[in-house]
Specification:
This protein has helices at residues 4-7, 22-32, 34-49, 58-74, 143-146, 161-180, 204-210, 212-215, 258-261, 268-277, 299-306, 312-319, 331-334, 376-389, 401-406, 429-442, 459-465, 490-505; strands at residues 78-84, 87-94, 103-109, 129-134, 137-141, 155-157, 188-194, 219-222, 234-236, 238-239, 241-250, 256-257, 339-346, 357-358, 361-370, 393-395, 410-417, 422-423, 447-449, 469-473, 487-489. It is of the alpha+beta class and 509 residues long.
């Protein structure tokens, strides 16, 4: 019989979506005092968020490393700092009593994106605040009123609340509950903490290669990434990789007066624009030859993708567009293909700084999201060939006076490969084990996603250690990830604690 008083806080946690999992959630409430743990975890998250965490700042990295090391040592984990090219990674380990047990490696992201504080609706993004919704507005709730006053739709705002310190603290809170109850997991636990994920984890591949035995595990769980738009608990079995591209088209050696030299000196913006306009058709399909050639989606995969509860009209309304690009037959199918995005364009000045000049260059920066079938090396060649076939001569620095005399079309290209794409079989042993835990907790009310559109630095573990990985997503989909007013919903944080606790208690056959 469900005790209504104990079940009350969860009545607001997606009542209909989680109805099938009600008994499991109620059992969790009665046996493990989750509300006390929630508030304890919230205070811990508040403390953790006040530690600045830009991965490019060595002091920030060290402050966060110290905090994580102390917390895991208090949880009886053995900790080790693995340093590669002066960049540290923290590894925490706790062994099971069963020496023959499997080892699960949990990945935690600690750093956050840079920000412009003037764009935030609070004084300092590193000083978290709690807000409640009032109509279409948000109202600050003083921290002293938050204690033991749980409202599921309240949110904590601050940099890294959802990406990904909220996930980290949910996991730590679940570990703390295990410790207080004298429970141990049925497997060895390793926890890796990455302090430069938002920089593309540049030293991680080498760190894994040089420390194979240290990081060795059977499975990997990633506590990072945003939930499906339904805000149902989400398991993600893959992620796209990323390749950054800079394309610079040269014009005159110096800015020229447009009145004096217009109709004589070509403006490089038009040359760049012609290159860009030839990259996509009006339906959004990339026209660079060979861009999609390696990707094939069979009927079985299509049926799996169709099971994800996407509502196209709702998605269109949410993002404010009339129609989507026509890559694949659905949103999920679109994520199985590589994508081409222009993330910025620069040429001369606009607004009050504008002048009547023909600029010396025009620059566009792109990101190409990769899938396993389209590695960075292949896409670099395709992009480079596209520019060459358009008649451009490529230089590796500023063009010389001689090159300027010879070549009417001059351009510079640079590439930076970030995270590689990965994909784990939905029917893998890891997937079956995690789903077993999710079904006990939420019934069948959770979402399985074949691949997220974003990127995660997980490929080094999969390729070097030879282990499968999947992500357990906790934050609400409307969390303003990477943007101003990043936030984490109270109900998602509480469910995150529950998910982590359930995984830590799940037996491995």
């Amino acid at each position: 019989m469900i005790q209504f008083k104990l079940w009350l806080p969860f009545l607001f946690l997606h009542i209909i979506p989680h109805l099938l999992g009600a008994q499991m959630l109620d059992s969790f409430l009665k046996e493990n005092k989750p509300m006390e743990s929630f508030h304890s975890g919230l205070e811990m998250l508040r403390e953790f968020l006040t530690i600045p965490n830009l991965g490019s700042n060595k002091e920030h990295v060290q402050f966060n490393l110290n905090w994580c090391e102390q917390v895991f040592q208090k949880l009886d984990f053995k900790t080790e700092i693995v340093t590669t090219k002066e960049v540290p990674i923290l590894l925490a380990e706790k062994k099971s009593a069963n020496k023959l047990a499997k080892t699960i490696l949990f990945y935690l992201q600690i750093d956050g994106q840079p920000f412009d504080a003037s764009e935030w609706s609070q004084e300092n993004p590193f000083i978290p605040v709690v807000k409640k919704p009032i109509g279409n507005q948000w109202q600050i709730v003083p921290w002293e009123k938050v204690k033991f006053n749980y409202q599921p739709d309240w949110r904590i705002f601050g940099r890294s609340t959802s990406d990904s310190k909220g996930n980290v603290v949910a996991f730590i809170t679940a570990l703390k509950m295990m410790q207080e109850e004298g429970k141990t997991s049925d497997y060895h636990i390793k926890v890796i903490m990455d302090f430069q994920e938002e920089l593309g984890s540049p030293t991680l591949p080498l760190a894994v290669t040089e420390n194979k035995e240290t990081f060795a595990a059977d499975w990997m769980i990633i506590l990072d990434g945003t939930r499906h738009v339904s805000n149902l608990p989400t398991l993600t079995f893959g992620a796209r990789g990323i390749l950054s591209v800079t394309l610079r088209v040269f014009g005159p050696s110096n800015p020229m007066h447009s009145g004096q030299y217009g109709n004589f000196v070509p403006n490089p913006v038009f040359a760049l624009s012609r290159l860009i306009s030839g990259m996509k058709d009006e339906d959004g399909r990339v026209l660079i030859p060979g861009f999609y050639d390696s990707v094939y989606i069979d009927s079985l995969t299509k049926s799996v993708l169709a099971e994800v509860p996407d509502e196209t009209e709702e998605l269109l309304s949410r993002v404010g567009i009339a129609k989507p690009e026509k890559i694949g037959d659905s949103f999920q199918e679109a994520l199985q293909y590589p994508s081409l995005n222009i993330k910025g364009i620069s040429a001369a000045k606009i607004g009050r700084l504008s002048t009547t000049i023909i600029p010396e260059d025009a620059i566009a920066e792109f990101d190409i999201r990769l899938v396993p079938e389209t590695p960075a090396e292949k896409m670099i060649e395709l992009f480079k060939n596209y520019v060459l076939q358009a008649g451009f001569h490529l230089v590796d620095q500023e063009p010389s006076a001689e090159e300027r005399k010879i070549y009417p079309k001059l351009a510079f290209l640079s590439f930076r490969a970030g995270s590689k794409a990965y994909r784990t079989d939905l029917n893998s042993d890891l997937g079956i084990w995690v789903e077993k835990s999710m079904k006990k907790t939420f019934g069948h009310q959770y979402v399985k996603v074949r691949s997220t559109g974003g990127s995660q630095p997980i490929a080094p573990f999969i390729t070097t250690l030879g282990i499968p990985a999947l992500a357990v997503n906790i934050p609400n989909p409307d969390n303003n990830i990477h943007a101003a007013d990043e936030n984490l919903k109270f109900s998602n944080f509480l469910e995150g604690i529950h998910i982590c606790y359930s995984l830590l208690n799940e037996k491995i056959n």
